[in-house]
Amino acid sequence: MSVIALASDHAGVELKSFLADELKARGFEVLDLGTNGPASVDYPDFGYALAQAVTTGKVEKGIAICGSGIGISIALNRDPAIRAALCHNGLTARLSRQHNDANVLVLGARMIGLEVARDCLVAFLETPYEGGRHAGRVAKLGCPPSSGASGATSC
Q: Which domain of life is it from (predicted)?
């Protein structure tokens, strides 16, 4: 059974619960990294916890939620092994997997409804990474470019 980690701030608690139920219904095990109530919390703390779960191999993929999705995606993407994609519909979720090999789906709880969130989840889970022409670009996401004009990486 595959494990998917979920993390949210206070704005995303309801959507996180909904998506956890969706995941369980699809046969996934859920690792809930919090938060679990309406008290105000700092989204970076939960983004970092999710990034750690992915980078240590505890889970292969994750789902992160905050009010807009912007803050938690910034926190997640500070880790070079994370490719967190803020998605607003099924198409952006599908493309995040096909072209970017996203390993974290990010949603804005105040931006989308439950049905759109479900569409994003399904697209994220069911879409494979294409590789091919995208592979070199994705490799550059985990390694900053050198100062050369060619865009070659230094690691």
A: Bacteria
